[in-house]
């Protein structure tokens, strides 16, 4: 009996993915829970396991294809024995041999019902999707069909654009507008399709700029006391907890202290309401070769320094290996990003919607400072930035947040007695 393998539910608000790579070929045997295909979403990369033992008889979509939740990926003949070896043609070539799959559907077989993603793309680009050739399964019009139709009608794009109503906000789908073909420079160029993760990062960042009344305030912190404390205890800390003592756990704890005093910074706008949150789930920005991801540490007010450091280290390892789960990427009430590890001296971090605040840490640099008595000393200084949504956070609250953070870091004993 043939078993259809479809795109599984990928998590809240995730409706589609990209087929990253096939891990099995047509004719190859699979066991229960064997990974078949790797899908890339806007948050994580996931492997789809086989629910049955058998042989792959058909692969429906090629690598690089965008697929929606519930779309057919391949078929497995349950209980069958393998008839091909891994040395045969790669699975991704199978759809190319089936020419009818790439050909436009005849008018009689065409399915004029559009998926929400296709309908949205067509509406935002002011085109009639019924005019686009349908190459999807069962005569469906795909997003690629609409994009190809747009590219083929690039000459008409200016007229359509002029007829569209003006808007100061850029729609999410327009972050990467279809572009006409241009010749390659003979001196050498390489074209690589943007990954789904990179596209969504760009779209979300642009959405944050277009939606929130974003503003950034700055302060500087003398890290000397914290550096001295860390140097004194880092060896015994690692020996006891089997994890390094870094600066991030102190900043997480300091942020929680400030968030408790200033609940608006830990809130979000939901329609015409403000949702204040009495829990502290802190997103930690992690850079990977694929792009920036933000896994979330839950209930940071209840975690020890060792638990925070262990959680961050684990996130870093699994983010680089693409092993973070969807649940770990969702939620979060506030975000911390550390550009200082890359040498950044100052920046203005962009909000992570729907959050209303984000803290940017930066490089520690020795600078002369003047104390209260007028004496000039050399401090280990770090600029910190707090970007916030001015719709619900006033300047007083934003500045006070950084002042409280500064007090905690410059006098880290405050964190131990919660003052």
Walk me through what this model shows.
- The chain has about 425 residues and is an alpha+beta fold.
- The chain folds into three domains: about 1-100, RNA polymerase II/Efflux pump adaptor protein, barrel-sandwich hybrid domain (OB fold (Dihydrolipoamide Acetyltransferase, E2P)); about 105-165, E3-binding domain (Dihydrolipoamide Transferase); about 215-415, 2-Layer Sandwich (Chloramphenicol Acetyltransferase).
- It has helices at about 95, 100, 115-125, 145-150, 155-165, 195-210, 225-240, 250-260, 305-320, 325-330, 395-410, 415, and strands at about 1-5, 15-20, 30, 35-40, 45-50, 55-60, 65-70, 70-80, 215-220, 270, 275, 280-285, 285-290, 290-295, 295, 335-340, 355-360, 365-370, 375-390.
- Strands 9, 12, 15, 16, 17, 18 and 19 form a seven-stranded mixed sheet that branches. Strands 1-8-6-3 form a four-stranded antiparallel sheet, with no helix packed on it.
- Helix 8 packs across helix 9.
- The longest helix has 18 residues, at about 225-240.
- The model is unreliable at about 85-100 and about 155-175 (pLDDT under 50).
């Amino acid at each position: 009996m043939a078993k259809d393998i479809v795109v599984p539910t990928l998590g809240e608000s995730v409706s589609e993915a990209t087929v990253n790579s096939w891990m099995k070929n047509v004719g190859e045997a699979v066991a229960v829970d064997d990974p078949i295909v790797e899908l890339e979403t806007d948050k994580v990369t996931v492997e789809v396991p086989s629910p049955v033992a058998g042989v792959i008889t058909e692969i429906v979509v090629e690598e690089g294809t965008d697929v929606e939740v519930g779309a057919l990926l391949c078929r497995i003949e349950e209980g069958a024995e393998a008839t091909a070896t891994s040395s045969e043609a790669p699975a991704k070539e199978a759809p190319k041999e089936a020419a009818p799959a790439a050909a436009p559907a005849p008018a009689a077989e065409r399915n004029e019902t559009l998926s929400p993603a296709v309908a949205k793309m067509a509406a935002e680009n002011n085109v009639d999707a019924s005019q686009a050739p349908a190459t999807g399964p069962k005569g469906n019009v795909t997003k690629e069909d609409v994009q190809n139709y747009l590219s083929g009608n690039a000459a008409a794009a200016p007229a359509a654009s002029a007829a569209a109503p003006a808007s100061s906000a850029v729609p999410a789908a327009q972050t990467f507008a279809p572009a006409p073909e241009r010749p390659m420079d003979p001196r050498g160029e390489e074209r690589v399709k943007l990954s789904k993760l990179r596209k969504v990062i760009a779209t979300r960042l642009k959405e944050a700029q277009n939606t929130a009344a974003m503003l950034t305030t700055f302060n500087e912190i003398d890290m000397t006391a914290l550096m001295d404390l860390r140097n004194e205890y880092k060896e015994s800390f690692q020996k006891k907890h089997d994890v390094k003592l870094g600066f991030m756990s102190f900043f997480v704890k300091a942020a929680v202290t400030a968030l408790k005093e200033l609940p608006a910074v830990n809130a979000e706008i939901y329609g015409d309401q403000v949702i204040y949150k009495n829990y502290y789930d802190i997103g930690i920005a992690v850079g990977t070769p694929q792009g920036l991801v933000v896994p979330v540490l839950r209930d940071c007010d209840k975690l020890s320094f060792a638990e925070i450091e262990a959680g961050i280290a684990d996130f870093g390892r699994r983010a680089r290996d693409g092993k973070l789960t969807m649940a770990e990427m969702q939620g979060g009430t506030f975000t911390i990003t550390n550009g200082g590890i890359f040498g950044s001296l100052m920046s203005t971090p962009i909000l992570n919607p729907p959050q209303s605040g984000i803290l940017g840490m930066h490089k520690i640099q020795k600078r002369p400072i003047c104390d209260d008595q007028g004496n000039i000393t050399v401090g280990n200084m770090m600029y910190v930035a707090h970007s916030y949504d001015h719709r619900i956070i006033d300047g007083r609250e934003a500045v006070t947040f950084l002042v409280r953070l500064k007090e905690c870091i410059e006098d880290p004993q405050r964190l131990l007695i919660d003052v």
